[in-house]
Amino acid sequence: MRLHRAALVSTLLCLTTLLIHTESTQPPFSCDLSDPSTKSYPFCRTSLPISQRARDLVSRLTLDEKVAQLVNTAPAIPRLGVPAYEWWSEALHGVADAGYGIQFNGRINGATSFPQVILTAATFDAHLWYRIGQAIGTEARAVYNEGQAKGMTFWAPNINVFRDPRWGRGQETPGEDPLVTGKYAISYVRGVQGDSFEGGKLKDGHLQASACCKHFTAYDLDRWQGVDRYGFDAQVSKQDLADTYQPPFQSCIQQGQASGIMCAYNRVNGVPNCADYNLLSNIARGKWGFQGYITSDCDAVSIIHDNQGYAKSPEDAVADVLKAGMDVNCGSYLKNYTKSAVQQRKLPESSVDRALQNLFSVRMRLGLFSGNPNKMLYGDIGPSQVCTKEHQNLALEAARNGIVLLKNSARLLPLSKTKTTSVAIIGPNGNNAHTFVGNYAGPPCKSVTLFQATQQYVKNTMYHQGCNAINCTSVSIPEAVGIAKAADHVILIVGLDQSQEREDHDRKDLVLPGKQQSLIASVAKAAKKPVIMVLLCGGPVDISFAKYDPKIGSILWAGYPGEAGGIALAEIIFGDHNPGGKLPMTWYPKDFIKVPMTDMRMRPEPSSGYPGRTYRFYTGRKVYQFGYGLSYTRYVYEFVSVTRNKLHLGKSMAAGSSESLQYMSVSELGTEFCERATISATVGVNNLGKMAGKHPVLLFVKQAKLTNGNPIKQLVGFHSVTLKAGERAEVEFALNPCDHLSRANEDGLMVIEGGSHHLVVGDEEYPIDIVI
Ligand SMILES: *[C@@H]1O[C@H](CO)[C@@H](O)[C@H](O)[C@H]1NC(C)=O
Ligand SMILES: *[C@@H]1O[C@H](CO)[C@@H](O)[C@H](O)[C@H]1NC(C)=O
């Protein structure tokens, strides 16, 4: 039978589509039950412990096969039915295609884009962070099941403490507080990996997707005045390591049970992180019980030889990292030099086996060696679970609850939905949804700009970009002033974008780029009423000029608020949502840049004028402080009850040299004592205003005496409550003295000092006396 040509073509097309479709829907997996040659291997037997299965698989590999597996793009081992695997995928604030593992090239062509982490942190809501993690883990598994993922290991969260306001990657982090950062890490990791909010052991260690705490450790400088992260040797004191740089990683590993760690580019006190046996093996695996794989940052092994000169040869670098406990190299260095390192007897093959044991264990925990994963746990998650209404609402909720109201003179906000007849939006990001998403993002489910979202409220909304670009090298003041004069209200949308702050690019100053400030001043002067300023930026900007300018009525900080950020901003501006976000980092004045970014010290040194860093130690003037954030309503606090106001620690065995400096170390007190000595503090919070709101309550501890490098104050708990107008709630905080009343001494030991302490919430204080 002769087929009509057109029919033939369409049949062929149909077949091709089917073929492509079948291929792309098959996720890569090992131990195919329909393949008699591979299914009988012990490493395929899911009834055996994973450690045994991984050992069996490693024992079957030749040295060449082993070496090939030590890099992020791991090839297939066809004779064993093992497919290729890509270790590098990203999911900082939504599944992204920034690594090599994820492709949005099939039925799934985008993922929910949550706000950049710094804004999500501003919600101070750990359960929200967990739900975001869950949504990301689910969408990741859907991408894998659909055959669009070559791996399920995601290199997030970024939990380095945001130490210096210039850091280009501060936007990726949960801010400057170690407790907040640690809690964020725990919540995100548990969500992504498929654990419950409260934690507890995952079923057989089984992972929905794998999360990775990065960058271990003391990494928070990218490129500043000729110093870059590849060459930087961070000088960090034991004290700062113990109570600032390390705690988020300890939380991520111990409570989050993260299955991955990334070692950072930089050196710490001379030793490259990825070559640091003490850090990777003694501390992470030994002391903290880490179980998972350790990857290098990309090309972080080559630099140990090429940039840092720490290793004399490439083989020495390879031997250093594999002996230290690193398992996989992002890059190709280990593929090129591991065999020669073994042949030159610089590295025992057992070190390679040790690494592979960790690598294959994680792949097995992901269910990739259990036959067709579509038939396994998480196998039924499909494209319909990506960009769901629920996930998109969660992105909106996070943006809404993160956005911080910094100024609201004469209650300019919210604007009336009925009486506002026209709005002018002015600024380079007013009609640009791309900037809202931030870095390490995939294509979002949808994009709505602030201009579009405002039009939903006020039909007569005008827009002018004001500047040529965010750098604002040229400005069109007459045009901007023209629409400002014609409008009832003006919204100026200014700040930064990835051209100003990003990976590999720290800022040189803390001010608005180019001529933005003169645009703002001119528009504010010309407008009929005080203007609203929306600030997009990850790191803080010194906007003192706007803070004190009466023509600027309101200021909102929106970080990079993600795919729903435009809608969230419009809802806040027009009173459909009451802002409740609080700043997760200190906003420093512009002269802070006289402090070298390379100086890692957290504590101030008055004799040299070094001001210290973050709310815990910084002694200078602030533009806005950590925890600051206004609302359309008013909240008041009271201490309702505190179960004890005196804590007896018993006689010190390691009393300090002077009588006034008595302390006990946390380890000598012991966890049992601290459990028994836990203080329960109940705080009442009352919404005295006329509007419902979600409000994070932040509890700090401060010591009366500011000596020995004590923090000025320290956040010890936070809890977000939703209150109707006039409603009151009580929030309970459990304070374990070992965790919450301790600080690091100069030797990096956590100690509790005797003397007078205060619990602080808002302006309320409650005294607690510690007696030794
Ligand atoms: C490894 O070898 C390949 C092939 O010779 C080369 O292209 C690549 O640059 C090498 N990688 C490194 C990090 O030296
Ligand atoms: C300003 O930004 C524009 C657009 O991104 C770019 O083309 C231009 O080179 C930038 N100018 C400067 C001085 O950085």
Q: Kindly state the mean pLDDT as a whole number?
A: 94
Low-confidence stretches at least 5 residues in length (pLDDT < 50)?
Answer: 1-23
Instruction: Supply Rg.
Output: 27 Å
Which outline best applies?
globular
CATH topology annotation of one domain:
Rossmann fold
Tell me about this structure:
The chain is of the alpha/beta class and 772 residues long. Among the domains are: 13-83 and 217-236 and 260-275 and 298-365, no CATH class; 398-594, 3-Layer(aba) Sandwich (Rossmann fold); 635-771, Immunoglobulins (Immunoglobulin-like, Sandwich). 29% of the residues lie in helices and 17% in strands. The protein is built from 24 helices and 27 strands. It has a 6-stranded mixed sheet. It has a 5-stranded mixed sheet with strand order 18-27-26-21-22, with no helix packed on it. Helix 2 crosses helix 13 and helix 5 (126-145) runs antiparallel to helix 14 (389-402). Residues 1-23 have low confidence and may be disordered. One 2-acetamido-2-deoxy-beta-D-glucopyranose (NAG) binds at residues 302, 331-333, 336.
